[in-house]
Design brief:
This protein folds into 2 domains: 43 residues; 78 residues, 434 Repressor (Amino-terminal Domain) (Orthogonal Bundle). Helices cover 64% and strands 0% of the residues. The chain contains 8 helices and no strands. The longest helix has 22 residues.
Length: 138
């Protein structure tokens, strides 16, 4: 391969860059120039993948519930993180937003990224709740 590093324009370019990166990783004692090349390749590969293969972050409430399910936890197991049963219920039912202190405690307990929990998400409005109750009981 030539010494020129090019921006990745398509999947073929990605394959070439990944192959070169793999070759460099197999070298047990790389030179400083090879380490620099490896770093640049890693950066352009990540940039391409972020632009073309990035996954959306999950909804914070969905992420909390999924992680609790993974760990076999129930809402009652999370009272220290939420503060109390009422707050936990309001948040998990999307009637109240997460606060920064709760986000920090949940991130630590559930090993979730703060960036996932700090996203905005839709709340259930009182009118929607009333309408749902009306239709459910009517």
């Amino acid at each position: 391969m030539d010494n020129i590093i090019r921006l990745i324009a398509d999947e073929t370019g990605l394959d070439v860059a990944q192959a070169e990166m793999g070759r460099l990783l197999e070298i047990s004692e790389r030179t400083a120039a090879e380490d620099d090349r490896l770093g640049v390749l890693a950066a352009i590969i990540r940039c391409y993948e972020d632009q073309h293969w990035a996954l959306e972050m999950p909804n914070p409430i969905f992420a909390i519930q999924s992680r609790m399910d993974d760990l076999g936890l129930k809402q009652t197991d999370m009272m220290e993180e939420f503060g109390n049963k009422a707050t936990a219920s309001l948040i998990m039912n999307r009637k109240r937003p997460l606060t920064l202190p709760i986000i920090r405690r949940l991130a630590a307990r559930l090993t979730l990224p703060i960036a996932v929990l700090a996203q905005e998400y839709p709340l259930v409005m009182d009118a929607e709740v009333s309408n749902d109750r009306l239709y459910a009981t009517g």
